[in-house]
Amino acid sequence: MAYLENIKTFVRVYELGSMSAAARDQRISAAVASSRISQLEEHLNVRLFQRTTRQLNPTEQGLLFYRGACRVLEAVERAEAEVTEVTQSPRGTIFMAAPLGIGRRLVAPAVPKFSEKYPLIEIRLRLSDRKLDMAAEGLDVAFFLGVPEDSTLRIRKIADCSRLLCASPEYLARKGQPSRPEDLANGAHDCLNLRYPGSPEFQWPLQIDGGVRRISVKGPFESDDGDVLTSWALAGHGIILKPEFEMAEHLATGALIPVLPDNPPVPVQLACLYMHRKRQDPKVRLLIDFMADHILRALS
């Protein structure tokens, strides 16, 4: 098993281009990751990487070994999957992430139910509205609103979620109800926006005259936490764009009121992302199928 673990670490170092990133991915220290690479190099009697103070580049022998190592790991994963399916006792740990709104309202409530059905599988759930790098952060599954930028990931669409603009009665009494989308673009209204590193300028895609127009908006507050934006809207500080399922409770009580209901935002795709090889893992497949079914029923 030690040799196989060394191969796994080598593959992640090669793919991530960093010893420390591979160590985080495998939940080991950078020293252990470096030791595993050194053991492989000693066993093979070759250098797998050229190391400098700033870079880690694979050698020609490293490239050749990577290709073979991937085939070995894929064969092991297939064998493990077949054995696990036969025994019907999937086990292990799944690292999963979701945005705050989806995570708290749709994903987290399903985790105990999944664990009741599959008690040998442990779930590690991380909730964050910031953009995540699945490979670098060692995630098996991530839920996502929108269209993923990383084409190397596999995607399973779960649903199209309707969205709306809304604000508190206090805000609308003070600022007035917008009568047309252009009212949001001229600075007459405060728009509360989700900001994270690398996020684009704020443009809200609204359905107008049978088409879609992106309205550039701005406001006094920004946050990387969607629930913070909701709390600001409830306190009367501006207008927010949110999935309808997140706002249902506040709309029902009248704490928030729809804005520009004739020009709603374009629906957003709710999907599940996973690495190419992860889908072969039966416990990951079970989790994705279970969560997709639970989310669809919760949204219906």
Précis, in short:
This protein is of the alpha/beta class.
Keywords:
3-stranded antiparallel sheet, elongated, 5-stranded mixed sheet
How would you sum up this structure, described in words?
A hairpin with a 4-residue loop joins strand 1 and strand 2. This protein has 10 helices and 14 strands. The longest helix is centred in the first third of the chain and has 28 residues, at 60-87. It has helices at residues 2-16, 19-26, 30-44, 60-87, 100-107, 111-117, 169-175, 226-234, 244-253, 282-299, and strands spanning 49-51, 56-58, 92-98, 121-127, 141-145, 154-161, 163-167, 193-194, 203-208, 211-216, 222-223, 240-243, 257-259, 268-274. The mean pLDDT is 87. Helix 1 (2-16) packs across helix 3, helix 1 crosses helix 4 (60-87) and helix 2 (19-26) crosses helix 3 (30-44). The protein is of the alpha/beta class. The protein is elongated, with a radius of gyration of 23 Å. The strands form 5 sheets. The chain has a 5-stranded mixed sheet. A 3-stranded antiparallel sheet has the order 12-7-13.
Order of helices and strands: HHHEEHEHHEEEEHEEEEHEHEEH
Question: What share of the residues lie within helices?
Answer: 40-55%
Number of strands: 14
Assembly state of the chains shown? single chain
Average pLDDT for all residues? 87
The largest beta-sheet arranges its strands as: 4-3-5-14-6
Shape: elongated
Number of helices: 10
Distance from N terminus to C terminus (CA atoms, Å) equals 46 Å
Major β-sheet profile? 5 strands, mixed
Compute the gyration radius: what is it? 23 Å
Secondary structure class reads alpha/beta
Uncertain residue segments:
none
Indicate the proportion of strand residues. Answer: 15-25%
